[in-house]
């Protein structure tokens, strides 16, 4: 960790609401495509986005809410695709919050592959000081 | 864009909940009054705040919620007034998110005047690096 | 104020939802334990966390929501304890938002001791410019 370049943007996702998960991934994947270093840290209810099966549930809820608001989803990127783009991008890292996993009794196996499990101290050691922008979704 | 001074604060509003829209505008207009350069970017449900008629709906919902919590609104600035202050301030810009407008089938005409429609890449090109503070509401 | 060192992290809590209050306090107390200077500013519904009796209500609501989601709380730090840690930490300050207190008709006495009441301008004067990271929960 110490030898790595710091991230440009570090995003904390702590809600499973669509207005947290979608804008976070759209901003993150866009930033990554523009050459920025991005890290995402999933905590609290937000962890659901990287639990197996969770993204589809979030997407379903989003489409229901859209229709309840009288809108018809049109050309919205699939959440699964956004997550795949993120996972396959260079200079992109996804972390799961260890405290949430313990406190909510989530098994480590239920997290999608390739997401190291770390705590708040690890996040802050990397991003608390210096130039990284921390965004809370 | 390239010749402009960077913003001090760039605010993303992605929810139409009162605890997103009101604090965002109060912080933004206060910062602007103190001489800071401010940009606001409305995306996802937050776009409602700059759709014609949207601010009044948000305000109505806020007052209902206040009363449900046993509080009586008192001396709260009108949301319309906060938006007017923002629009009439120098060094203040309001943007609407192009992706949301397409995905939710919102017509460009329904956005209040003077709010250019741009995408996440444009936002990140201006604020992703450098000293601008990005705040997510 | 002018002679003080600037904070490393300034956190605005504007919601009383558990996914706002808990992650904010966990991040803040962890940062403080790591030697960072932390300030928290409670506004809008978030003020409830520092109103006497409010933390217990938030905790009760959180446990109910956990069970409704089919999870059993396990080893979760007590919110009261997190708040006590924050209040007893050096280089840690908690502020209550004056605008919210007036607008929602909250009496100054109902705020827990040791939390000065200030406005958005005071917050921005300290953190709007310079290197402090502003996080919105």
Overview of this structure, please?
- 3 copies of one chain form a homotrimer.
- Chain A is an alpha/beta fold and 137 residues long.
- Chain A has one domain (9-136): DsrEFH-like (Hypothetical Protein Ychn, Chain: A), CATH 3.40.1260.10.
- The first copy, chain A, contains 5 helices and 5 strands, in the order E-H-E-H-H-E-H-E-H-E.
- In chain A, helix 1 (18-33) links the parallel strand 1 (9-13) and strand 2.
- In chain A, helix 1 runs parallel beside helix 3.
- The mean pLDDT of chain A is 95.
- Chains A and B meet through helix 1 and strand 5 of A and helix 4, helix 5 and strand 5 of B.
Number of helical segments with 4 or more residues of chain A:
5
Largest sheet of chain A, if any? 5 strands, parallel
The CATH class label of chain A is Alpha Beta
CATH architecture of chain A: 3-Layer(aba) Sandwich
CATH topology of chain A: Hypothetical Protein Ychn, Chain: A
Record field, number of beta strands of chain A: 5
Strand order of the largest sheet of chain A: 4-3-2-1-5
Helical residues, percent of chain A: 25-40%
Let me know the average pLDDT of chain A: 95
Helix/strand order of chain A, N-terminal first: EHEHHEHEHE
- From the helix content, strand content and strand pairing of chain A, which structural class follows? alpha/beta
Determine the strand fraction of chain A and express it as a percent band.
15-25%
Give the SSE layout.
Three copies of one chain form a homotrimer.
Chain A: E1 9-13, H1 18-33, E2 38-42, H2 54-68, H3 79-87, E3 92-97, H4 98-103, E4 117-118, H5 120-127, E5 133-136
Parallel strand pairs in A: 1-2, 1-5, 2-3, 3-4
Helix pairs in contact in A: 1-3
